[in-house]
Amino acid sequence: MAVITSVDTYDVRFPTSRDLDGSDAMNPDPDYSAAYLVLSTDDGPDGHGFTFTIGRGNDVCRAAIDALVPYVVGLDPDTVDLGAFARSLTHDSQLRWLGPEKGVMHLAAAAVINAMWDLVAKRAGKPVWRYLADLSPEQIVDLVDWRYLTDALTPDEALEILRAAEPGRADRIARLTERGYPAYTTSPGWLGYSDDKVVRLARQAVADGFTQIKLKVGADAADDVRRLKIAREAVGPQIRIALDANQRWDVAEAVDRMRELAPYDPWWIEEPTSPDDVLAHAAIRSALATSAPDGGPIRVATGEHVANRVVFKQLLQADAIDVVQIDACRVGGVNENVAILLLAVKYGVPVCPHAGGVGLCELVQHLSMFDFVAVSGSMRDRVVEYVDHLHEHFLDPVVIKDGHYVAPSAPGFSAAMRPESLATYAYPDGPAWV
Amino acid sequence: MAVITSVDTYDVRFPTSRDLDGSDAMNPDPDYSAAYLVLSTDDGPDGHGFTFTIGRGNDVCRAAIDALVPYVVGLDPDTVDLGAFARSLTHDSQLRWLGPEKGVMHLAAAAVINAMWDLVAKRAGKPVWRYLADLSPEQIVDLVDWRYLTDALTPDEALEILRAAEPGRADRIARLTERGYPAYTTSPGWLGYSDDKVVRLARQAVADGFTQIKLKVGADAADDVRRLKIAREAVGPQIRIALDANQRWDVAEAVDRMRELAPYDPWWIEEPTSPDDVLAHAAIRSALATSAPDGGPIRVATGEHVANRVVFKQLLQADAIDVVQIDACRVGGVNENVAILLLAVKYGVPVCPHAGGVGLCELVQHLSMFDFVAVSGSMRDRVVEYVDHLHEHFLDPVVIKDGHYVAPSAPGFSAAMRPESLATYAYPDGPAWV
């Protein structure tokens, strides 16, 4: 019998705003940050987890993680029921008032839940994607909080989905291990970059084997058209160029702006408006259904700011999106993302995770690989975002090869930061900040 | 010229769980609490504000209020643009990541925005309802953050609504001052109360002049039927009995349970399911459209946990609710509630605010009175919740007379707690807790 003996929390911030890395129309000067925790046991490895923020307020998330510590200390990681554990964090009768299941408390729950997954997978000697992929359909269904989902998806329907994917698991594990999982890159497209830098990085992305890139839009309309035009000229017609407006528009403006950009064949428009606005996404998607140069749709994508499974459920029920963009730390960690992966299969919509930030690539690759092996069974039109920032701070950083994520082999969730990074970038007293 | 010189924050908690006051199916043991702040100036009165929580996590909200202090200190309360000020809190480019506009950061923004309104109204020598009711339609429109609203309501449409209500303002102020604003009471209906206590308090409510009461439901089905039956017998057929399930059900269960309760003529079902679930509320409302004993609808109500104006907008666009339940502290304070009041008029749905807790009655009465004078111009089917808890801790507590809120006359937002209450119930070091 092992026991979790203590939880240490950290406020880690990287001064990324100094170089305009990560700049977009809504977030002009982010300092990529992590509210980070370590679960220590009396026996064996630690569990690491974090939630991602963009600077100010990282301390508020750390305080929220501290509020969840009583639910973790004393648990035995070898016998913990991971479904019940996740629900204990999101359904505390007093803390639930602060959401429910959204905002700071949910970001904190994600950090703690993911830390527990890191710990449990390490103790099992498996990377998280493989730990998940080795569970039975029944065990996977038990991870999910089914409250508020049953009008769209029942546990029995989920079991059917998972059982249908069972026969091919071994083949898909082999394929994943051999070829990896497709990535796309946002590195060329930050709003603060010059035209020359956009062209140079877009060409480099193609040379590196990526078949999809992404550009930020949503500030000046003429700038958006010019940047998309030069990027399209730089990469040619075969490379998919996704656009990301970071929630800047109302419905009419989103439709007008995208029609101006349509001649340059954008693959999707991400976050055209508020992430809470199911009906607005449905209206935008409908208005753009024949706007592509070939008369097809401009796809609508969202998810990095979608608060929880209830909002994803509605986006799917309302035919509001073409692409589900899960985030490893926005919703309630692995467990709630399993629910969203199942919903996406039910509605036939591909999942293309949000990543970037600090460590989001490291985490979310596991979820897409699990999805491929045991849930959707498909990589078609599926790509995981990749941004080449800050990976050097992780002990088991992502590896990209020919535009693909290489399947992680180290046990755990690839979540652990280097101790020297935790110290150097500690806010406000670390050497990077004083 | 005056200036805000400092902000002091407090974690105040009342041990209400000891008596099961406030108990419901989702919140069995709340300790009613306030994350509280005082804006001090170099000249004249202080501004008081708070957000309401039910215990654990109140410290997280206080940390979030602390994160907003840089936006307040140094402002001149006599020249501050209250619209721009509110937007500065909710659109900070880094803090926005933690929501956007939801959860802990939005609760904190509400506290700070409401404190500023308290301060500004005190300096003008008016209660907040009257300060608002004396603004021009143009000034009221400028209070609102119009982002994400224009597919449902434009600033020009809002101006039309407000101009249409202008001619009768003086008459309605006189009527309000004379008769007050109708209240309903939830005091009889807490889930932890015995049947005898429910009957006794229900009869007392009628004797006190209330024409509507509310009961909690959502735990045991047979208990719900029994309690509603005895309450109906106690108050007779003319008193409206609202029910509140506090988010306990999925769609099918909500419909089934309400059909069982329908013979006892419930006036509305509040929070039948997740507050994020626009489509579920629409489905439930549709299923109950002819379920009342007279073949009419059982109304659907929600709002105390609705995160922001974007979700309210969709609830109205989707015909999902019959009753809009604003909360003074859940969304971004006075400003965002003005937006919601305007949306409700556009869609012809009455506003019946959520109150109770700590100080929510004190605050929200101002918003309904402003709505009557300057926005909807109507009290029809409109009632403000009233719960007789914890008013003794306020310097200017609500006054209920013949089932009506008496219009406040003291300058400000009725938000200030007694200094001795702030000290006694300070958590964890106040005498009530040690």
TrEMBL record, chains A, B:
Entries under InterPro entries matching the protein: Enolase-like_C_sf, Enolase-like_N, Enolase_C-like, L-fuconate_dehydratase, Mandel_Rmase/mucon_lact_enz_CS, Mandelate_racemase_C, Mandelate_racemase_N_dom, RHMD-like
Keyword Nuclease (UniProt): no
Organism name: Micromonospora arida
GO-annotated biological processes: amino acid catabolic process; carbohydrate catabolic process
PROSITE patterns according to UniProt: MR_MLE_2
GO MF annotations in UniProt: L-fuconate dehydratase activity; magnesium ion binding
Keywords: Lyase, Magnesium, Metal-binding
Gene3D superfamilies linked to this entry: Enolase-like C-terminal domain, Enolase-like, N-terminal domain
Domain of life: Bacteria
Catalytic activity reported: L-fuconate = 2-dehydro-3-deoxy-L-fuconate + H2O
Enzyme category, top tier: lyase
Start and end residues of each Mandelate racemase/muconate lactonizing enzyme C-terminal domain: 195-291
Cofactor needs: Mg(2+)
Assigned EC number: 4.2.1.68
Protein name, UniProt field: L-fuconate dehydratase
Name of one Pfam family that matches: MR_MLE_C
